[in-house]
Amino acid sequence: MGLLDILLGRTKPVAPDLDRLFALPSAAVTLQAAAGFTPTGHGAVCFATVEGAAFEQTHREVQALLDADADRNGPPVELHRDEFGYSWLVSRRTPDQLPQLVNDLHAVNSSMEVNGFGPQLLCSLAGFQDPEGRRLALVYLYKRGTFYPFAPLPGTGERRDNPLELRVKAALADDLRIEQDLSRWFPVWGAPGL
Q1: Angle formed at CA 70 by CA 68 and CA 73, multiple of 5 degrees
Q2: Percent of the chain with pLDDT over 90
Q3: Which Pfam family, just one, is annotated for this protein (predicted)?
Q4: Distance of alpha carbon 136 from its chain centroid, rounded?
Q5: Domain range holding 124?
Q6: Residue 120 located in a structural domain
């Protein structure tokens, strides 16, 4: 960053730090104590849809890597495309396997990054649920290196539980690097893995 960038108010983008995903298991302990949410065992990586042989090869590599782990709940990783044109690689584990789920998410992100698809990566999420059935995702913004909570309200319609999201933000402030710009807390309606 040069003097001109400082004067014009430009900031240097934060470099992605995928190792921050490894803070999720300890944050889950805090989340359970503070709000009663426990892991569902489901998580996903979202990226701008990519076509072609290079992506298909990367997808096969990720599946082979995660297939080696026989202690999993379902297929290694499933590819879904949503109604907005984004793709999701979804991993499913048992609820007590959050560290393994985080390893899956890290492996998917790393494989895509190494194979040149880093610019298409958008976010990763891990799903949580409380005893009342409310859902919550802790979303990692790849390009910002930060997390935020997303809590859709049950029922029809696209509404969020903003008070819950703010309580989770406050509870996890010491565990995760929380995105402070609330306008970047993008809704992930109908996200697989949530």
Answers
A1: 120
A2: 58
A3: PspAB
A4: 11
A5: 13-184
A6: yes
- What domain count does the chain have? 1
Q: What is the C-alpha to C-alpha distance for residues 91 and 75, in angstroms, rounded to an integer?
A: 8
Instruction: Please report whether residue 4 resides in a domain.
Output: no
In a domain, 147, yes or no: yes
Phi, psi of 51, deg, nearest 5: -115, 160
In DSSP terms, 147 is beta-bridged to 140, 178
pLDDT tens digit sequence for 118-143: 888 999 999 999 999 999 999 999 99
Our CA angle for 99, 153, 90, nearest 5°, is: 35
**Does residue 48 sit within a domain?**
yes
